[in-house]
Design a protein that fits this description.
globular; 6-stranded antiparallel sheet; GGT_peptidase; about 575 residues; zymogen; alpha+beta; 22 strands
């Protein structure tokens, strides 16, 4: 599971110049040395406490973030955990930035017909999801091992103790969890183990406040803690593969070799500038960086600060920029180990300036189409991936100046509905296009054996002009993730809002022909104003759940989405 490490040591002006010329930018050596305690921000207070506990023991930001991921496996099983994967960004006071790809992989036997029926047509979403067919090889434990080897301070086993204690001694079900379990009971209680954990004998979800335990998960965590990640990828491989295969229709299925052969991968960060800041996020197979940087880059020529957060024009421009960015995302983004992905070209300032010229302050783009960056020969077409859901993000800073941004997921609520070892298994493979080709042209994000599906996760670190990290942020909520991050960065940079207030800004999601607004949107006259510009607008509940840590006033400050049960706490 070892991979090469990346060291970036350019000065801040050089890094910014690289962004402006379209070359791959690199964050600078940081001169910032915090003198205040570290901070943890997560989607659940029990996970936040786990991270803080590790910081207080002398653990690094990496150590604390691993403890958070493990605790979320227990208390937020509907969203993330060791049955899934994630993306990890880390920056230290010496200027090193690493990103680790812990995305799940398709079994070697998975081919282009993986999600097609006997007639060659795409399966229904429910049939595809609630099955071993949707499960990718989990990557979070391998990711954690790589991260710990690079930047861990405490012993591996110590990081598991808060999660083991929660699983063995119990935790209380929250209203958010109960709502999820009730709405997707067919997945939460698909197998007897899930039903026994969270439902009564009559099949009713246990009420919020009920204290539950998960001794099987505690045993699994204890084994991985004492024996190391090899326990997950070697000792458990046979039983885990057999369980998934037994729930997979057809002859092709996951094998032990798929699990033992998994590795987390070091990748280059993808960076760009917005105003006077350097923004670094996760490159392919995530679409997070390209989409966030495209949304912001296309807005750069507009006076967002001057128009203000109550301007209908601002939110119209934000919607239009999304539509262009998502058109590019749908066409180009996939696993770069399998298809050529022009990630750097998609965020090149010259390309984004040209895309921006398609946006008018007083008119809606009729049909946003993907662009063609310089030097790119487009050989692929858009697929038909289902809408994404779920996920959890956490941000951590420690007193030594290390910062972590990690987004973790099992995809939809309760993943595939399959449970093994006390944890839910992901349904990440439904992030692939169900159709391998459209009108004879191949889809970049089609299913292939060993391939990682495209993701929306966008763990992000923001640097000031001096190369200091000033914000680490990310979000949960499927396809809305890049929009949540871009919106918060717009608020933080253009309107000088705190991370907390930037996260709390209204959500507007516009990846296609319809704008979705939050039901309690607070911008006066926004729906009517957008409709007057030609938009189709609907209000609905949006899956917003962002977490951040910012450097402000000489100290680290945490921020958590007020729409969620998230919290932040100081060491």
């Amino acid at each position: 599971m070892k991979a090469s490490r990346l060291l970036f040591a350019l000065s801040a002006p050089l890094a910014l110049a690289a962004c402006q010329t379209g070359e791959e930018p690199r964050p600078a050596v940081s001169a910032q040395v915090p003198t205040t305690p570290g901070v943890v921000s997560t989607a659940d207070p029990r996970a936040t406490e786990a991270g803080v506990e590790i910081l207080r023991q002398g653990g690094s930001a990496t150590d604390a973030s691993i403890a958070v991921m493990l605790a979320l496996t227990v208390v937020e099983p509907q969203s993330s955990g060791i049955g899934g994967g994630g993306f990890f960004l880390h920056h230290d006071a010496n200027g090193e930035l690493i990103t680790i790809d812990g995305r799940e992989t398709a079994p070697a036997a998975a081919g282009s017909d993986w999600f097609l029926d006997s007639e060659g047509e795409p399966l229904g979403y429910r049939e595809a999801v609630i099955s071993g067919r949707s499960v990718g090889v989990p990557g979070n434990i391998a990711l954690a091992a790589e991260a710990h080897a690079a930047h861990g301070e405490l012993e591996w086993e110590a990081l598991f103790q808060p999660a083991i204690r929660l699983a063995r001694e119990g935790w209380e079900l929250t209203p958010r969890f109960v709502n999820f379990a009730e709405r997707v009971q067919e997945r939460a209680a698909h197998q007897a183990e899930g039903a026994a954990l969270f439902f009564d004998d009559d099949g009713n979800i246990l009420p919020a406040g009920t204290r539950v335990t998960n001794p099987e998960l505690a045993q699994t965590l204890e084994a991985i803690a004492s024996a190391g990640p090899e326990h997950f990828y070697e000792v458990m491989a046979q039983g885990l593969a057999e369980h998934i295969a037994a729930n997979t229709p057809g002859d092709a299925a996951m094998t032990p070799a798929d699990i033992t052969g998994y590795s987390a991968t070091m990748r280059d960060a993808l960076c760009g500038t917005y105003r006077d800041y350097l923004i670094c996020s996760m490159g392919p197979p995530s679409s997070g960086a390209t989409t966030v940087l495209a949304i912001l880059g296309q807005l750069e020529r507009f006076d967002i600060a001057g128009m203000g957060a109550d301007s209908v024009t601002v939110w119209h421009l934000f919607a239009e920029s999304q539509r262009l960015a998502y058109a590019d995302r749908e066409l180009y983004l996939a696993d770069p180990d399998f298809v050529p992905v022009p990630a750097q070209q998609l965020v090149d300032p010259v390309y984004l300036a040209a895309r921006s010229e398609l946006i008018a302050p007083d008119m809606r783009i009729a049909e946003p189409e993907a662009g063609v960056p310089a030097g790119v020969i487009q050989a692929f077409t858009d697929g038909d991936e289902p809408e994404e859901h779920g996920t959890s993000h956490f941000s951590v800073a420690d007193s030594a100046g290390n910062v972590v941004s990690w987004t973790s997921t099992i995809e939809g609520p309760f993943g595939s509905g399959l449970i093994y070892g006390g944890f839910y298994l992901n349904n990440e493979l439904t992030d692939f296009s169900f159709r391998p080709e459209v009108d004879g042209a191949p889809v970049a994000n089609r299913v292939e054996g060993g391939k990682r599906p495209r993701s929306s996760m966008a763990p992000t670190i923001v640097f000031d002009m001096d190369g200091n990290p000033v914000l680490t942020i990310g979000a949960a909520g499927g396809g809305t993730i890049p929009v949540q991050v871009a919106k918060a960065l717009m608020g933080y940079i253009d309107w000088s809002l705190s991370a907390q207030d930037a996260i709390a800004l209204p959500m507007l999601y516009s990846p296609g022909d319809t704008i979705s607004l939050e039901e309690d949107n607070v911008v006066p006259g926004l729906p009517e104003g957008l409709e007057a510009l030609g938009h189709t607008v609907r209000t609905r509940s949006l899956p917003s759940k962002a977490n951040a840590v910012e450097w402000s006033g000489g100290r680290w400050i945490g921020a958590a989405d007020p729409r969620s049960e998230g919290t932040s706490a100081t060491q």
